[in-house]
Amino acid sequence: MSNIHPDDRDERSRSGSVNIYGDVTGRDKIASGLTPPSITPPATPPLELSIRFGKPSLDAEDALLPVSVHVERLGLSAGPFDFAVPLDDKVLADLHWYLELYPQWPVGPDYDRALGIEARLRDWGKRLFDTVFAHRDMLRVYDEFRRAEASGHLITIDATDARVLRLPWLIMHTPNASSGNSRRTADPTAVIPATVCGWMLGATG
What we know:
The protein is an alpha+beta fold. It is built from 5 helices and 7 strands, in the order αβββαααβαβββ.
């Protein structure tokens, strides 16, 4: 049997190490010689430009779609303006083959077909950008978005129309704000939800 007086036990608890996660009495203490873990503040979210497509005014397969752009953090918006799908079914079929089927067996006679598609990716991507930002007000919003200081720049597509959702937004090329050159904005490994897709642009320099 221990001969330690109860007052001695309390003294040892006050002077020695204790459970930093709380003792049996529910009193939380910091262990002797230890410092509490630091809490890392959450990272600043990237600046987002949302490209939003509404419903067409006419019920026809080739009806124009209203499109607008928004950078809510900067209080910027433009549109809606008319949007006509810039890529036809043959282009979309080639892209589906190149992105979904060709990687499974990238050899043999299909190699030449893949090279031909790769040579046209930049043109198709530029066509997408030019169609969305055809109006100068839309382009102005993009320019301000691209030049704004941020940890990153995120473009999202917000749509429910199947004609928009099937477009290859991952290959969209945008003009570089500092040099005027085109660059591919997409991360090919990005996961794209059904109605909203997004990808990261590099941080502005």
